[in-house]
Design a protein that fits this description.
Oligomer: single chain
Distance between the termini: 15 Å
Number of strands: 0
Shape: rod-shaped
Number of helices: 3
Strand content: under 5%
């Protein structure tokens, strides 16, 4: 198995010894996964907020083109971070 495809649980199991620690690791893995899933939800919410703000800004008079472009750039950054977080979720869990 290549290092790139090693699951988070396996990495923790390598670093800790004993059956009692293995039980603890299961909870640590679940907690880490839920934390990452929560971060993904936060990013999805930010994207939805940007979509709304961008659309609303297009109908303002006078339109502030720089503001719309800045928000599109910020949304693109959040989109990229979302993709990275989703990839990380698949890779680790």
């Amino acid at each position: 198995m290549s290092e790139k495809n090693v699951k988070y649980k396996d990495l923790l199991l390598k670093s800790l010894k004993g059956e009692l620690e293995a039980v603890k690791i299961e909870f640590q893995v679940k907690k880490a996964k839920k934390s990452l899933e929560s971060s993904i939800l936060d990013l999805e919410e930010k994207i939805a907020d940007y979509d709304i703000k961008i659309e609303q800004s297009k109908y303002l008079y006078p339109i502030d083109f720089n503001r719309v472009l800045d928000m599109q750039d910020e949304k693109a950054l959040v989109d990229r971070r979302l993709k990275q977080a989703q990839d990380l979720l698949v890779e680790l869990f």
